[in-house]
Write a structure and sequence with these properties.
Number of strands of chain A: 10
Largest sheet of chain A: 8 strands, parallel, barrel
Number of helices of chain A: 12
Helix content of chain A: 40-55%
Oligomer: homodimer
Strand content of chain A: 15-25%
Mean pLDDT of chain A: 96
Number of domains of chain A: 1
CATH superfamily of chain A: Divalent-metal-dependent TIM barrel enzymes
CATH class of chain A: Alpha Beta
CATH architecture of chain A: Alpha-Beta Barrel
Shape of chain A: globular
Low-confidence stretches of chain A: none
């Protein structure tokens, strides 16, 4: 093999989530990935809608790119019936979009606590109810719902599902090909029960998506955009990748880093760095 | 009883951690608490050292104040032998200070990951080792070491012990009167295993300290100073207080809020608000 082929082979499982290259349009992302021999991307609903769902699907196909996941559905915790109905409608639209993009994985972020609500257990139960309401619709379209636990610092305002154990407690109420979980190193690295959760998820065939980002401090105001480039932080990324592999996962390794410092740089340079860091710290 | 006596009775278990009133000197804190009929405080090492440990002990005694805890020892995760030895020396000094203040409780914050370290399990084990090294010294002086799990958002830079379960896993290696745990609502509110942890801690006689603060967002940069006044956030404070009571805890309810907006206000006004919020949301 030539060194280019070697490099491409190294990157066979790498998927680049588009939020990592937020400075790029969808065509720039498709061209940039194709140029480096990267064959998979994770997409987000808003930029895909803006570009046009069918047009985005064609663009990815033209560049030989597989869409490994669509982010994101969810936000299921409203107790108001009208808000709940609107959320379910929006999630059905997300399922349709995932199907149109040819991805079998719709990532779900549960939603936080409604204003004034102090009952997080009840909010988690509403998440499970909403997923139950969506499963038949998603299954008919070949889309698996992937529950993503977010770091506990997001529990009040973004995602009441904070651990892999909680995500599995919900997922396991449904068939494994209909509801899975997302294993994201950024959200789970601190948890001494993550190992057991990954093994449990693997045994049940529940790992729908594996995402990597590093943990760095200090956290910025609002904490959403503080994710670190692979290798810049304290997460044992290779350890996580090995664990999901040992649990039987054979899917993509999706790099999802929300970081304004990366967004401020040249996209091609950042993507090349991501590929290098992936080889050095994850592969 | 007069209404003043009623009010004082209501506040019988209330302890005010001095970081809640950081704008106050130790004499201002002592006088302010005494004026409201508050009989307990939690103190911090640095301001106590600055004022003089013996002098602080006398000041509290003169105002009829019990010191319910001293914050804080810990920072045990260094892998460098010289740093580790320095940390143990500093913790022995903290134990002496706690004994001099007449409190049986030294709160321990474990410390984060050393620079470049990605092995959080090993860091937690170093915490347990250090506690083992300190237990005889503390026990001789009648001081119980109280392991405080901090919210997982502090796991890398401040405290590798993130859950009550992890704190108990370490504490239970020692006698209950020598090593206990801190139950702090701010750090534990998101965890669906906190209930089980509180019950387990109660059965083992391990609840050394109960602290309350509310969870509010957005988190500020660095996330340390984002705690909310009681009732301003999403934590079921009364639910927690009921749980620790049902687990057999009979000690103080210590209000510890790090919040620059409170520090910018008149101390007496803030303390009065704390007492009102305590009655409304905790009692």
């Amino acid at each position: 093999m030539t060194s280019t082929q070697d490099a491409a082979h190294d990157l066979a499982r790498l998927s680049v989530n588009q939020e990592t290259l937020k400075q790029w349009s969808l065509p720039e992302l498709a061209e940039g990935c194709a140029a480096l021999g990267i064959t998979s991307v994770g997409l987000w609903r808003a930029p895909v809608q803006e570009y046009g769902v069918q047009r985005a699907a064609a663009l990815m196909g033209d560049h030989g790119l597989t869409v490994t996941s669509l982010c994101r559905g969810g936000f299921f915790t409203a107790s108001d019936p009208a808000e709940r109905a609107a959320s379910l409608d929006d999630n059905r639209a997300a399922i349709d979009e995932a199907a149109a993009l040819g991805t079998g994985t719709l990532v779900l972020v549960s939603g936080g606590l409604p204003e004034g609500d102090r009952d997080i257990a009840a909010a988690r139960e509403r998440v499970a109810d909403a997923i139950g309401a969506l499963v038949p619709y998603a299954a008919e379209r070949g889309v698996r719902l992937a529950i993503e636990p977010l770091h506990p610092m997001f529990a009040s305002d973004r995602c009441v599902v904070s651990t892999l154990g909680q995500a599995l407690d919900i997922a396991e109420r449904f068939a494994p090909d209909q509801v899975g979980v997302v294993v994201d190193t950024y959200h789970l690295w601190w948890d001494d029960r993550a190992d057991a959760g990954i093994a449990r998820a693997g045994e049940g065939g529940r790992i729908a998506c594996f995402q990597v980002a590093d943990w760095v401090t200090p956290l910025p105001e609002g904490v959403l955009l503080g994710r670190g480039q692979l290798g810049d932080g304290c997460v044992d990324l290779r350890g996580f990748r090995t664990q999901v592999d040992e649990a039987g996962y054979r899917g993509a390794v999706e790099v999802e880093i929300f970081n304004p410092a990366l967004w401020a740089r040249n996209g091609a340079e950042v993507l090349s760095e991501v590929a290098d860091r992936y080889r050095k710290h994850v592969l």
